[in-house]
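2 proteins. here.
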Amino acid sequence: MLNEITVMIYCLKYGVFCPQECILSGIMSVKGKKVLHMDRNSYYGAESASLTPLEEVYKRFQLPGSPPESMGKTRDWNVDLVPKFLMANGLMGLFEKRRFKKFLTFVAGFDENDPKTLEGVDPQKTTMREIYSKFSLGQDVQDFTGHSLALYRTDDYLDKPCIEAINKIKLYSESLARYGKSPYLYPLYGLGELPQGFARLSAIYGGTYMLNKPIDEIVVENGKVVGVKSEGEIARCKQLICDPSYAPERVKKVGQVIRVICILSHPIASTGDVKSCQIIIPQNQVNRKHDIYVCMISFDHNVASKGKYIAIASTTVETNNPEAEVQPALDLLKPIDQRFTNISDLYEPTDLGVESQIFLSRSYDATTHFETTCNDIKDIYKRLMGVEFDFAEMERGHNDIVGEQD
């Protein structure tokens, strides 16, 4: 029964979970693949999980004792280990706002196939630095636009053709217009709902999902994967998608990320007492090579007890003192009731996986939005299937299958 299947495995050495595998399991099931999704943990997620009750968070971070009574009912908590959403705010002067408005109007109407909208700009040759200069936008506005709207992590994009950045800004604006207050979505009860949702999608289309299933060995013959060994049995497969921890000889360490989960009894100062927000501290503002991210959610999202907030600060590690690197973010959150600090290694595959048919995902980076994760999913899909991912094609396939079931 388990012969000739695509196997998705995750939840590894440190309970690490990459939703890339779970999302792909849903996609591959919809496309008619036989999928077995194995999970070492007893719950969905792990690094992308939302831990509940609050005692589980204390246990994971090896804090002594139990949560104090001031934290409220511990089962009201669903603490994301890795937040992934974005809401951004920027402040600028009156004249800067006018110039920025002209810039946004230009971006909104920009169509590389319509010369009337280009205003002399060559989408493939004019750099984004030149675009900013065209509208006389200062450094602070450039930082806000490039890092909070277009979601770039470095300033390398400034000297590249402007078309990609313009499309990213248009996506942000269009998403904002759709809902009015924020261009981003966040699931109630935490991000742990996402892997559960894709697991259900996989199951609907014939996928098999197994919790509490240890992975003993990836079986390889003649350089290609042929199965996964678990508790003395081998599930035969032609393809394998997994987290870097399963195949350390096929990945390389590319850095580290620090994340500090903070429990607060108040919203972040100077944010208008909002119940959720994100602050991106651009690298230039703090003399760093990487941005610092702060993501805040609250009891409004069913992730904390009444009156409580969860803020997670994260950044890419650059020195031997990671906690000092994230301090500018922590200063914004004071006073902090409780904090949980985690420093994790970042890995990426050393080969495409085409020869071995073992396709590895990348570790979660420091960003608190799904941009890089989605890019990784599309990259794995292309390596796995040999073609670019086409969402429209998947939607058609989904409708066809639903029609057959009806």
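next one coming up
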Amino acid sequence: MFQKLWLIPAVLLVAGGIAFAATRSTPPADLDYSLSHLSKDGHYQVTLVPGIDPVPVGKMHAWLVDVTDAAGQPVDADIVIDGGMPQHGHGLPTVPAVTGKDHHGRHIVGGMRFNMPGWWVLKVEISGTAGVDTATFNLAL
């Protein structure tokens, strides 16, 4: 029995190597990188506007989030934004938060920072008159 114990570290090493390689693969080829689309259930049109173009890596910045109903009318809604890197299994290095609204009624989200290049996903949760819905956005930095 003890003669085969060496297999345990060998299997763990191989499994770890496979997992590491999977996280470094290229993102799916069919990703939608648009920054404006309907929310998952179609209740809201959500548009993200980065405060800096191109979006920087390693620099703190803000984004604007515009929320309208499906007909394009402004919606009074609360939003929460979160995200991460699906291939790396980690979230954003910061906790973005709504800090107010601009003169067009768009939410100002401060505390955005991406700590490395690659495929990022941002998820916006909207709580408005039509209910709670989410919109998910892909970014390539």
